[in-house]
Amino acid sequence: MSLTARIVSALLAAVVVAIILQLQRRGGMGSKYGLLWMATSVVMVVLAAAPDVADTVGDWLGVDYTPSLVFMAALGFVLIVLVQYSWELNRSEQRIQVLMEEVALLRRELEEQRTGNGPADGSGSSEQATT
Amino acid sequence: MIPAYNEECTVGTVIAQVRRACSGPVEVVVVDDGSTDSTAKTAAAAGAIVLRLPVNLGYGVALRLGFRYAANRHWDHALVLDADGQHIASEIPVLLAACDSGADLVLGSRFHPDCPSPYQVSLTRRMAMRLVSRVIRHRRGVALTDPTSGFWAMSRPCVELFSQQLPAGYLDNLLGLSIAARAGLAIKEVPVTMAPRQGGQPSATGVALAYHYLRATLAVFIGGRS
Domain B2-222, what fold? Predict the structure, then answer.
């Protein structure tokens, strides 16, 4: 690997580490994903500092062209993370929906209690929700 | 039960028509799916019970909220119709009569062979509905001419089933249908006529509609999850 390529990849890894650390420090990520991204940035730093590591691993696994191994690993990792996000997003969406239904039912109950029982005129619900 | 999203022009009329069409004790519930217009106010002024979702979450969530309310209040029957005036309220007794004669879920079909003048729909919708009908017949053994009808009535067991099991997706009644069929409830179709839309905007057209149906079909296939 040429010196320039090494410098570029080292810089890239440094930037990623800086971003992750900064986010982590401000509490913008939480520990749930924090650990995952810390580990990722460590791997990036290792690969940038010592590209031979990739070659060694490639030799173990019998891969002739090491860069393809790195690409495959990176792609696989990204794919898994994305699928996990889809799942997570879907779950939060459903929880939000249940919550909203609960809010609507509770609001109705509150109106009923305010106006006495029976079909209330519902004018108490005319304020706009800000979202 | 009337799910409504930005239907201030028509919801009042629909409520009045429903009241006129029903004899006996009836609760008219408008599920306002986060409308940004005065749908909730208009509905309340027309004497309906309004359940307001704080943000727009889609037809499926509005329906499930309505069913939960209906189940909490122990309704004997629940009837769903659109807020845009497309469903003719004077046909409500027809659906309820079918319910009383033993069906758990009654769909008002626009394409029933007994319809005097079949309702015209766009090519996308027609193709999609044919596909969906086929999937439902194949998977659930129920032959339907109009599985996407939004005009339906049901008995208490069906209300309770829906209030617990309707997945909280935005998908329409198809999933409900699928769930009801799987639970072994009796499903029936009756012919209805459909008025032209009185106001408001159709919920989806073209590619969005095709995607919507594709998703619904997949959901029916995998067994009623959103």
Answer: Spore Coat Polysaccharide Biosynthesis Protein SpsA; Chain A (3.90.550)
